[in-house]
Amino acid sequence: MRGVYPDVSKFTQEQRKQFDRLPINLTRMLLYCPVPLVQSLLDFGLSFRTGNLEAKLRELVILRMATLRGSSYELMHHLPAAKMAGWSEMEIFAITSTQPTGLEEKYSIAIQFVDDCSKLGKASDSIFEKASKVFSAPEIAEVALLAGFYEMLACFLKTMGVELD
Predict the structure, then answer these.
(1) 76 with 91, same domain?
(2) For the whole model, what pTM was predicted?
């Protein structure tokens, strides 16, 4: 079953509607799940585009979690978005490296926050305190949700064998 997608030609009208919203391999594989779940997941994921985070911070969180989880699918989809958000090749290299250096302080703190969320299941007290000095409470809350969302997606993508588009 790993790497085997539902047959698009056999989608119900409701499944086809969700697939057409975001016609990528991730959506196709998600459609093994009930349509309301897929719709809610897509809505939630797409809602981050209009959230509290500036595009650079949003893409940093996604790239970092994708790197930590070894999700080439997420990296493939978000490297262009990171460049569009204003990250340079050198900065992207730092974000996706094992020992990121050379970034603005707030972005270094965001990386530490994501690293903690991945390793500990939460931001440590010391990193949360640092983050509180450079980010608002709404930004911190959204970074935590975004990190968790992309960690969950990485698990799904790798478990189900979703191939690059």
Answers:
(1) yes
(2) 0.96
Buried-state track 87-112, b at ≥16 Cβ within 10 A, e below 16? beeebbebbbeeebeebeebbbbbbb
Summarize pLDDT for 66-106 with one digit per residue, the tens: 999 999 999 999 999 999 999 999 999 999 999 999 999 99
Q: Are 66 and 79 members of one domain? A: yes
| Neighbouring C-beta atoms of residue 147, cutoff 10 Å | 23
In a domain, 62, yes or no: yes
C-alpha 127/C-alpha 47 separation (Å) is 26
What is the number of structural domains in the chain?
Answer: 2
